[in-house]
Amino acid sequence: MIPRSSGIYMSININKAYEIDAEPKLWAKLYRQAAKDFAREISFFPRCPDGSRQKIAILSHENPDGDAIGATLGLYHMLKKKQDGKTSARIKSIAKPGQVVLHRNTGHDAMNGTADVIMINPGPIPQWLNFLPGIKFIKRPDELPPGYVPDCAVVLDVPDEDKLGAGKRIFDAASRKIWIDHHQYKDTDWQMDEWLISKFSVIDSRAGACCEMLSHIFYYYSKYASPSIHSALKQELNRDAATALAIGLHADTGGLRWSGTNCNSSLALATLQRAGANWTDISSSISQRSWAEQKFVAHFINDNASTFEKDGKLVWCVLKQREIMRFGVGDEVTPWTSNVLYQLEQVPDVQMVVMFIELPNNVTCVRIRSNYDWLPVDDFAKFFPPEFCTGKGHKKASGYKIFHGANGFGIREAARLFLDVVKREGKFR
Length: 429
Ligand SMILES: [Mn+2]
Known about the structure:
Blueprint: E1 17-19, H1 24-42, E2 54-60, H2 66-84, H3 89-92, E3 100-103, E4 114-120, E5 152-156, H4 168-173, E6 176-181, H5 190-197, E7 200-203, H6 210-224, H7 227-230, H8 239-253, H9 263-274, H10 279-287, H11 291-303, E8 307-309, E9 314-319, H12 321-326, H13 333-345, E10 352-359, E11 363-370, E12 389-393, E13 397-403, H14 411-425
Parallel strand pairs: 1-7, 2-4, 2-5, 5-6, 6-7, 9-10
Antiparallel strand pairs: 3-4, 8-9, 10-11, 11-13, 12-13
């Protein structure tokens, strides 16, 4: 059970929770309200009694994807704009590179407060995101100054506190917590409600990406936030923020193609394009593949006995360690094999794709995809003893691990056992 926030900042609505899952009119109303309250939450940073600046940490999940990094940078660039704006000319001179100094313009100089904003992620940050402006300023938790404790932690695209990894310590230590996320929260019992209202949270399980949510929030910020209260944050989306958010929107929605994409995702894209995000450039940079990866995928599909069964509804293949070495796959196993899975998914009639990847120590990783909601692939582990097979995931994309060392099996036998279950229990149509 997570303890409630200290309550020191009760006056700024910290215990307000939204469940945005609503019809269009209500949807807009809720986002407008969320934007106003978010602006108030994040712009509340009085000068600390000892004269130091308040600290704001932007956190996201470990092993970050495009959405986690896009959201982190999107918020950072929105806040950074303050450093360049006219109200903070005085502050600009004291900001170091990569440091954002926020300035809350209350109109009364004595009341002005400032804050340092730090982006934190345990990594590893995928290489393909390196072109994003500001990415090099994201710090690992172990790179923070000793004893770093933020006054406010903003958590983006995280469904579960444990996914913060080493960042959880920083989240736990923060006295104010802001939580913005689009994942499904299955747990709707009172404990979950209690947990969500223990911090300022905006949850929209219909949004395609956390970046989509931030686009809406920033849109309503600039449109409706009352200038008298929120002048420090009332601003248009800037191009760097819009580009980072568009990356996340693209990454989590497959360029607005996957299920989970809806009219609000398109609205978010319009907002981001208007602010200068170049969707064409973003799409082509996301679909670029190195020559080594292209050769690996082509070879793999051509030579690697991708086997069709169930009248072509099921296709499976095996990636062995020696091929991983031969092609210099290195740390790129996940993106490269995703590309293979993607190619196989596009074949007409294919309903499910299964890939077995040989890991060291007689462990096999299974990556499995379904093209359809009615063919879930997240629940095959229950047909095996837990010491042999574990794993789960989403209905249409899951991962398992098979520990076959104890049985003296190789990857082929492990694959055969797993496939028998898939063919027997899978709801092929
Ligand atoms: Mn996401």
